[in-house]
Amino acid sequence: MLKALELAGFKSFADRTRFDFPDGITVVVGPNGSGKSNIVDAMKWVLGSQSAKSLRGKEMSDVIFKGSQTRPAAGAAEATIVFDNADGNLPVDAPEVHVTRRVYRSGESEYLINKQSVRLKDVRDLIRGTGIGIDAYSLIEQGKVDRMLQANAKDRRAIFEEAAGISRFKAKKLEAERRLARVQSNLTRLSDIVEEVG
Ligand code: ATP
């Protein structure tokens, strides 16, 4: 389902760079420090990672190309992940879904789905239950297998629920329950007022 990743000004990728992931297995090779892990960082980042530490930096702006001896620093970092949606697996009416995240030196940041500005919540909703989220099992990094094996029953269950696509509905249910509670309390307040006035 992952089709491509496009980076610009992201960490060591100063120039616009596109990685295509054709069917089958893709292997990225290169010397130490050449930017292999930065590609995985970009995927986590575009899918909404809020933790600079998990991206091996101190601050979020650390993802912006910081310049080299031969070229100046970039003003912004951008990453776009392209999913093939021919099977309609993602709830977007388009054969391809582009999720973009951009951050400027000022700290301003934005998310886009197919070039439309959206909230982080929309990105999370889009990928929830598909197994491609940052907390899901599709990005298996060093130490993660260990953590999965050592997880308690509750955490392990969450991994299976994400894989089975249940977590999407659980989150929707929780949201609906919260809304219901708000309406209920508004209703109580309203009936108090009605009583007072009456
Ligand atoms: P290894 O095989 O050692 O794990 P790697 O290929 O995974 O290496 P990365 O860790 O992805 O390499 O890349 C690290 C490189 O990215 C370093 O050279 C670092 O200077 C560079 N880098 C990280 N952040 C930035 C940034 N904001 N601007 C420019 N370069 C950066």
> Portion of residues in helices?
25-40%
Overall average pLDDT: 90
Please state the overall shape, judged from the principal axes of the Cα atoms. Answer: globular
Low-confidence stretches: none
How many DSSP E strands? Answer: 6
Query: Largest sheet, if any?
Result: 6 strands, antiparallel
> What gap, in angstroms, lies between the N and C termini?
61 Å
Q: Write out the strand line-up for the largest beta sheet, numbering strands in chain order.
A: 2-1-3-4-5-6
| Helix/strand/pairing category | alpha+beta
Q: Which ions and ligands are bound to the chains?
A: adenosine-5'-triphosphate
Tally of individual helices: 5
Descriptive keywords:
single chain, 6-stranded antiparallel sheet, 198 residues, binds adenosine-5'-triphosphate, 35% helix, alpha+beta, Chromosome partition protein Smc
Question: What does this protein look like?
Answer:
- There is one protein chain.
- The protein is α+β, with helices and mostly antiparallel strands and 198 residues long.
- It contains 5 helices and 6 strands.
- The protein has helices spanning 36-46, 120-127, 144-150, 153-164, 167-197, and strands spanning 2-8, 17-20, 76-84, 96-104, 109-113, 116-118.
- Strands 2-1-3-4-5-6 form a 6-stranded antiparallel beta sheet.
- Strand 5 (109-113) and strand 6 (116-118) form a beta hairpin.
- It starts with a strand and ends with a helix.
- The structure holds adenosine-5'-triphosphate.
- Adenosine-5'-triphosphate (ATP) is lined by residues 11-12, 30, 32-38, 62, 64-66.
- This is Chromosome partition protein Smc.
- Residues 166-193 form a coiled coil.
